[in-house]
Amino acid sequence: MNIHEYQAKELLAEHGIAVPKGIAAMTVEEAVAAAKQLPGPLYVVKAQIHAGGRGKGKFKELDANAKGGVRLAQSIDEVEHAAKEMLGNTLVTAQTGDEGKQVNRLYVTDGVDIAHEYYLSLLVDRASGQVAMVVSTEGGMDIEAVAHDTPEKIHTITIDPAQGFMPHHGRAVAFALELSGDTNKQCQKLAGQLYEAFMALDVEMLEINPLVETKDGDLLVLDTKMSFDGNALYRHKNVEAMRDETEEDPAEVEASEYDLAYIKLDGNIGCMVNGAGLAMATMDIIKLNGAFPANFLDVGGGATKEKVTAAFKIILKDDAVEGILVNIFGGIMKCDIIADGIVSAAKDVNLSVPLVVRLEGTNVEKGKEILENSGLPIVSADDLGDAARKIVAEVKKAA
Ligand code: ADP
Ligand code: MG
Predict the structure, then answer these.
(1) At 88, is the pLDDT very low, low, confident or very high (cuts 50, 70, 90)?
(2) Using an 8 Å Cβ cutoff, are 304 and 357 in contact?
(3) Identified catalytic residue from 5, 207, 213, 360
(4) Which CATH superfamily is domain 114-240 in?
(5) Separation of 383 CA from ligand 1 center, angstroms?
(6) Residue 207 catalytic?
């Protein structure tokens, strides 16, 4: 789960980490009121969307010369003007895709006198089973280009979670960032605090870009992105409460209400599968047969009729879907019960695209019989390869 910049900064501040003062706003009036509570005279008004690249982004509704989603403002009037231009409009950045994201929240924050912009992120490195702290002296809006053109300017310091953060890790980070004197000391402390916050909150990825050194030599977190391990959210009610469903794919939100693991993809074959491993294999074999999956969907081990119906509806809401492949292994749940669920769900949703079903496991013969006698144009398949070939062929035939 992702959260907004202002929420991430709240969490970091709770861990004693220095962030500029700021206040979130949902309306122009709130943005003005927020600015009045800040010392001024320099403010920054920042669009709050779950995507980076806001500074270089463009608003669809404004002309091409208009500024992006991070605006410096020299007065309360300029804050008001920026808020009016941003709220309700659609910001397109390198990370939003062409459709962009509507800006519904702003963050009005202190303007900072920047001496240098650094990059610092923390993530779970699955290869080493450790936490990686990735840092660079070349922070700011072009970190992707730095990684591509001058990878030697990016340094990784790994921390073994069994051992925890040690003073030498802090020194390595400060050294990689080429800091000296008091700023170097601040950096060592900050790296430790960030690691503690990362672990305590079950963060999956924490990116600070930029981390800035001010003209006074202080280190400040100027921008941050945080995403969390969904499986650990139950331990952090305060983080869970920060979820902003308007930022998420509506189908994915609906799926989570039914406890379905659903991720939308770009293809045209809807998949309904039980078990993540089988779902991955199904997607692979669809690709092998020359088509692309429209989604990943794991209905879970105990796929009830209600779940199957909800899954069908979610898949069919996607206009790109031209056929559905159901691939279910009846282990805990018997095949005849699953077949009943599929038939009644298909009738419920007035299925309008080809449907291929592959069932395997307990009571498979009974299940196939139910599908055959349903009167619905369901194509039954014998194994995974057969199922993939059939759905690809059916979709081609229908087109
Ligand atoms: P994004 O990464 O989405 O473009 P940032 O918050 O990183 O958004 O802002 C982009 C740039 O705007 C930063 O690299 C920094 O130069 C400038 N900036 C952001 N916040 C402030 C601030 N509070 N004071 C001064 N400059 C800022
Ligand atoms: Mg940034």
Answers:
(1) very high
(2) no
(3) 207
(4) ATP-grasp fold, B domain (3.30.470.20)
(5) 54
(6) yes
Q: Which fold has domain 250-398?
A: Rossmann fold (3.40.50)
Active-site choice (119, 195, 258, 262): 119
Query: What is the third-level CATH fold of 21-110?
Result: Dna Ligase; domain 1 (3.30.1490)
3-state secondary structure of 345: helix
- Residue 361 CB–ligand 1 contact under 6 Å: no
What are the b/e assignments for 283-307, b being 16+ CB within 10 Å?
bebbeebebebbbbbbbbeebebeb
Nearest CA to ligand 1 atom 11: 55
Check the annotation: does 88 bind a ligand. Answer: no
Encoded tokens for 88: 């309700």
50 touches 244 (CB < 8 A): yes
Give residue 136's identity as a one-letter amino acid code. Answer: S
Distance of CA 339 to the CA centre of its chain: 34
Global pTM reads 0.83
153 token code pair: 């300017």
Rounded to the nearest angstrom, the distance between the alpha carbon of 52 and the centre of ligand 2 is 6
Mutate to test the pocket of ligand 1, among 141, 143, 208, 224 (most ligand atoms within 8 A of CB): 141
Cα distance between residue 166 and residue 191, in whole Å = 10
Order of strands, edge to edge, in the sheet holding 101-102?
Answer: 58-59, 90-92, 101-102
Residue spans of the domains in the chain: they are 21-110, 114-240, 250-398
Predicted confidence (pLDDT) per residue in 270-290, tens digit: 999 998 999 999 999 999 999
Q: Distance from the CA of 223 to the center of ligand 2, in angstroms?
A: 5
List C-alpha distances in Å: 146 to 143, 151, 219.
Answer: 5, 6, 21
Confidence of residue 248 (pLDDT cuts 50, 70, 90): confident
Instruction: Band the pLDDT of 253: cuts 50, 70, 90.
Output: confident
Tell whether ligand 1 has an atom less than 6 A from the beta carbon of residue 22: no
Rounded to whole angstroms, the Cα distance separating 360 from 332 reads 12
Q: Which residue has the tokens 């006074």?
A: 216
Query: Which pair of structure tokens corresponds to residue 27?
Result: 């309306």
Query: Quick count: other Cβ atoms within 10 Å of Cβ 81?
Result: 15
